[in-house]
Amino acid sequence: MAVVSGFPAGYAVNLEAINADLALRQGGHGRSRRQKIEKDKVEFLSGLRRGVTLGSPITMAIFNKDVRIDDIEEESVPRPGHAELAGALKYGTYNVREISERASAR
Predict the structure, then answer these.
(1) Which residue, among 25, 47, 52, has the nearest Cα to 36 in the 3D structure?
(2) How far apart are the C-alpha atoms of 30 and 66, rounded to whole Å?
(3) Backbone CA torsion sign across 15, 43, 24, 53
(4) End-to-end CA distance of the chain
(5) For residue 25, what are the CA distances in angstroms to 9, 88, 106?
(6) What pTM was estimated for this model as a whole?
(7) In Å, how far are 30, 76, 79 from 19, measured between CA atoms?
(8) Strand 2-4 relative to strand 58-62, pairing
């Protein structure tokens, strides 16, 4: 989720262009097969009406519809080179699955 404030009113937002750019990551160079199956699409939750900015804060989100974090089993061993160890130490958790979702390349 992202919130952008200070954006002026009256600008048209091309949702199709944004989603086309998001689709480019599916052919990316990551190691994860998940990258190829997730169909990312941005959803604007506030700040737009009929595709035009209102001047109020713009809230947009890309929801992960392929996996729910509550359905994934816990993991306590961080992967080498991933943000899981640093995140687990920072947030004081032994379940590194929470960190891997938070530190996703998305």
Answers:
(1) 25
(2) 17
(3) positive
(4) 11
(5) 30, 27, 9
(6) 0.59
(7) 19, 35, 30
(8) antiparallel
